[in-house]
């Protein structure tokens, strides 16, 4: 029997019971995939992160992510949560940790300020897929309960990824964003066709000058009907906006804040930065706050 330490962390917020909850097992050495899947199912967050000791000098450890149904390659909010829990557990000063993930070794920056922490996650390589044909577009819109006239004409329906892909769907109205009632079975079926599990619907309809976009993210194919605040959607959104020249921007650094979770009363804010090289997205980072909801132990 071994005792494993589990944190429940709300990410992208400083208020308990808001933002996006993630489980974190900070001392996961010895757990196998079946046990990790069982723990993730028991905690029933959209993702649970598992931190392992390093096997060599190339990294500070490895990290794996599980939804209640399956393992996923990378997760934004669970990374913020995991690094926050590690910083608390080890009483870290400001530092950069390099962790092995399924999308490569990534640097995660921990910023200590006033006895608390923020975390900056460097995401994986940005990729933008070709636009869909009109039939797939219509299937996606119909499954979301949208018409073509509801969409923002500047925004092609397109898969963007920094390691865990999302379909980007820009619409005109925040009221409509918050009234969406997707057909989850249809979205699941479309996911099998397009090999992408997440649908990020966003709008520029913001009444806050500090918030560029509001969004909602649906991923029923991996057991997440709606994810509260999604780092791996807001981050790729930054690259998508730049590469499609949707944002009128000059310079080598594009920064914005995306808000999510309004409809389901779990508001959180993701700070996104996109470094450009030759006018194209090169490095995408997300920054977020976090707060501990509870800490417990389990013997296995």
Give an account of the 3D structure.
The protein has helices at 33-43, 76-90, 134-144, 174-179, 184-194, 231-243; strands at residues 3-11, 20-25, 47-52, 61-66, 71-72, 95-101, 104-113, 116-122, 127-128, 158-161, 166-171, 198-203, 213-219, 224-227, 253-260, 268-277, 280-288, 290-299. With 300 residues, the chain is of the alpha+beta class. The protein folds into 2 domains: 3-122 and 289-299, Diaminopimelate Epimerase, Chain A, domain 1, CATH 3.10.310; 127-287, Diaminopimelate Epimerase, Chain A, domain 1 (Roll). The protein has an 18-stranded mixed beta sheet that branches. α3 packs antiparallel against α5 (184-194). The chain is globular, with a radius of gyration of 18 Å. It starts with a strand and ends with a strand. The model has no long low-confidence stretch (mean pLDDT 97).
Question: Which helices and strands appear, and what pairs or packs with what?
Answer:
Layout (H helix, E strand, L loop, with lengths): L2 E9 L8 E6 L7 H11 L3 E6 L8 E6 L4 E2 L3 H15 L4 E7 L2 E10 L2 E7 L4 E2 L5 H11 L13 E4 L4 E6 L2 H6 L4 H11 L3 E6 L9 E7 L4 E4 L3 H13 L9 E8 L7 E10 L2 E9 L1 E10 L1
Parallel strand pairs: 2-3, 4-6, 11-12, 13-15
Antiparallel strand pairs: 1-2, 1-18, 3-4, 4-5, 6-7, 7-8, 8-17, 9-10, 10-11, 12-13, 13-14, 15-16, 16-17
């Amino acid at each position: 029997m071994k005792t494993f330490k589990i944190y429940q962390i709300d990410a992208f917020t400083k208020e308990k019971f808001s933002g996006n909850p993630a489980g974190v097992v900070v001392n996961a050495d010895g757990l196998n995939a079946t046990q990790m899947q069982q723990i993730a199912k028991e905690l029933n967050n959209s993702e649970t992160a598992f931190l392992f000791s390093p096997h060599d000098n190339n990294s500070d450890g490895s990290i794996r992510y599980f939804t209640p149904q399956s393992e996923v390659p990378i997760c934004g909010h669970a990374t913020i949560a995991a690094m926050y829990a590690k910083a608390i557990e080890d009483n870290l000063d400001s530092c950069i940790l390099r962790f092995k993930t399924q999308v490569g070794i990534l640097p995660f920056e921990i910023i200590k300020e006033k006895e608390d922490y923020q975390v900056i996650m460097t995401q994986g390589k940005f990729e933008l897929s070709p636009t869909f044909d009109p039939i797939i577009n219509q299937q996606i819109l119909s499954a979301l309960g949208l018409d073509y006239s509801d969409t923002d004409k500047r925004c092609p329906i397109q898969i963007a990824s920094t390691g865990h892909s999302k379909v980007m769907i820009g619409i005109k109205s925040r009221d409509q964003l918050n009234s969406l009632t997707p057909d989850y079975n249809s979205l699941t079926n479309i996911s099998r066709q397009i090999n992408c599990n997440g649908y990020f619907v966003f709008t520029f309809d913001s009444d806050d000058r500090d918030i560029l976009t509001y969004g909602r993210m649906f991923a029923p194919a991996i057991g997440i009907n709606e994810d509260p605040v999604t780092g791996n959607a807001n981050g790729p959104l930054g690259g998508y906006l730049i590469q499609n020249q949707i944002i009128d921007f000059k310079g080598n650094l594009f920064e914005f804040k995306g808000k999510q979770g309004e409809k389901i009363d779990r508001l959180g804010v993701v700070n996104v930065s996109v470094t450009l090289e030759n006018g194209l997205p090169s490095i995408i980072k997300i920054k977020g706050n976090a707060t501990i909801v509870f800490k417990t132990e389990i013997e296995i």
